[in-house]
């Protein structure tokens, strides 16, 4: 090998190593999680039907694992219990999202933890439960003292925080859809699906871009969804879209192994409701207004319904 070739050769190796390091730090990996299970159904889609459709989307698309955060107060019948068992039987996992969906910011530590303990004991009768707690409303407690006390209680019971990295307003899109359906409006389901997928994807990119800009890496992401009608209708479409962008769906347990899982400091982290990436950046002094995607806003979603022409009668 002459000198010139050898120099080119080592430049090529350096370039490859650089690209590899970029790939490693910008992982493009995301786990799927659902809150508030088992959410009640309606006359157009029963709760059980919703569960079957969500499971079908996951299994048809070979998603190995997903985590369903259970609000145990939503378990009101044998069917509700069967729905949770169905997720576990299909190989997915359940976790803890409180009993009464209390806000840790608006209730005392004692009340919050009583409710936590109640959910914990109810979950003991289910299989496939992982000890992750997701705070309702992503409210971790409004004071350092409260956050520290709650965190100590979770740790004592071997719970880790089931944080999210990608927040969104899927719940509001769903509520608008249900209201339109109830009002008997003519719904364009293709347009609704497109709105759902594109809005959630914009949120994923937004929080990933924030991480890349400020943390200089892309963490293993955790997508927040709700166990709602839109997930039952469009989860498959969402999964396909994520993969079409070169991303990989990973298990929630793998995502929660990311270094950002241990970044939470109860005393310092007072801003948690936009997810873990935003919480870390807030603790580093990044302005709050930069930490929230525009679609996390009801008026913005109202406009999207009009732009995407979801119903004929939207103005
Ligand atoms: Zn919730």
UniProtKB/TrEMBL annotation:
One Gene Ontology CC term in the entry: membrane
Originating organism: Thalassotalea algicola
GO biological process: carbohydrate metabolic process
Entry's Gene Ontology molecular function annotations: hydrolase activity, acting on carbon-nitrogen (but not peptide) bonds; metal ion binding
Domain NodB homology stretches: 27-147
InterPro entries: Glyco_hydro/deAcase_b/a-brl, NODB_dom, Polysacc_deacetylase_ArnD
Domain of life per record: Bacteria
Residues spanning the signal sequence: 1-27
Name of protein: Polysaccharide deacetylase family protein
Keywords: Hydrolase, Metal-binding, Signal
């Amino acid at each position: 090998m002459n000198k010139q070739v050898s120099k080119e050769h080592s430049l090529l190796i350096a370039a490859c190593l650089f690209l590899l390091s970029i790939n490693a730090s910008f992982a493009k990996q995301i786990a799927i999680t659902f809150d508030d299970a088992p959410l009640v159904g309606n006359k157009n889609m029963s709760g059980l039907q919703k569960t079957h459709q969500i499971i079908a989307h996951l299994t048809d698309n070979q998603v190995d694992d997903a985590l369903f955060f259970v609000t145990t107060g939503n378990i009101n019948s044998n069917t509700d219990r069967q729905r949770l068992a169905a997720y576990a039987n299909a190989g997915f996992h359940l976790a803890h999202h409180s009993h009464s969906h209390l806000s840790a910011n608006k209730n005392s530590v004692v009340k919050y933890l009583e409710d936590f303990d109640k959910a914990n004991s109810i979950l003991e009768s289910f299989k496939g439960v992982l000890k992750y707690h997701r705070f309702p409303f992503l409210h971790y407690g409004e004071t350092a003292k409260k956050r520290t006390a709650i965190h100590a209680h979770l740790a004592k019971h071997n719970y880790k925080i089931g944080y999210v990295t990608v927040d969104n307003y899927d719940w509001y899109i769903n509520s608008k859809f249900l209201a339109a359906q109830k009002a008997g409006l003519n719904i364009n389901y293709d347009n609704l699906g497109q709105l759902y997928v594109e809005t959630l994807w914009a949120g994923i990119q937004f929080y990933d871009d924030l991480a890349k800009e400020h943390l200089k890496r892309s963490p293993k992401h955790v997508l927040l969804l709700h166990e709602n009608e839109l997930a039952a209708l469009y989860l498959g479409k969402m999964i396909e879209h994520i993969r079409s962008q070169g991303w990989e769906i990973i298990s929630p347990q793998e995502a929660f192994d990311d270094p950002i899982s241990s970044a939470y400091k109860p005393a310092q982290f007072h801003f948690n409701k936009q997810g873990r990436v935003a919480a870390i950046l807030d603790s580093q002094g990044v302005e709050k207004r930069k930490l929230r995607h525009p679609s996390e806003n009801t008026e913005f979603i109202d406009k999207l319904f009009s732009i995407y022409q979801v119903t004929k009668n939207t103005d």
